[in-house]
Amino acid sequence: MSVNQTIKRYTRIISLLRRRPMSYDEIQNELSLDPDAIEDNLLTSQRTLQRDIKAIASIYEIEITSDKRLNKYFIREDVEDLPSKRLRENFEILNAIRMSRGFGESLIFEERRSLGTEHMAGLLHAIQNKLYVAFTYEKFWDDSVQDRKVAPVSLKEARNRWYLIAKDEKDGRFKNFSLDRIQDLVLEKSKFLPVHFDVEKEYRDSFGIINGTEEEPVEVILSFTPEQGRYVESLPLHLSQSLISKSEEEIRFSYYIRPTFDFKMEILSYGNKVKVIEPVEFRKDVVRDLQSALAQY
């Protein structure tokens, strides 16, 4: 059996048991209903399933055990790291794309600009080998194009886009560059000295990719309508989101975050479904933008 088949089988087992506990027969029945699983011969013996469970615990750090009383398998401990989780999810999407071929509009994608993912392999190589990279870059704000030479540090995802975090050789500052705005990427032969920039720490209190501004992180309290609040509760705006209260009139959350431009734009996008409670200055800033928008009409 190929490595590709093995990874597919691991992924399908994890996905099925995340839905609910299942017996060996139930797992096999679910796989038998999946044309892709049949094509790739993913159905296995119970002995192979036992080996798979051990491998999944070792590779994904997901502990699967059995309830002998119910004769079902279930996930007991799930500490899968984020890269592994995203890789598994993307693998599942890829399988869904394969299954949807020839079935008309059974799988519909949102049309969007390319994410610039064709640059990722080259940039990762440059980051790992400390190689300078050069490229032309089209700015978001004025569509101007500039030549850049940078020392790449990391790749970061934010708001459905991928960004290169790098030290700009022009002024020595750390900046972010959206991959979809990068053109004519060249990996240079010259190397740079190790640079220290803790990306996770620097962006922990940011909403998206805006960083290095004057705003300090503060506690922000937002009041949502019950309907919108339930949506935000299921899909948090920020890692620091914490539920304060829930009633028939409102749902309140607190955040420890920099009240940057992109965070304010996110709040404004909810219209009359949200209200800023604190801090007062940020509340006033949002009110000014709402008044300015109303004046357009």
UniProtKB/TrEMBL annotation:
Every WCX domain range: 216-294
- InterPro entries given for it? CBASS_pafABC_assoc_protein, WCX_dom, WYL_dom
Q: Where is the WYL domain?
A: 119-185
The protein's name is: WYL domain-containing protein
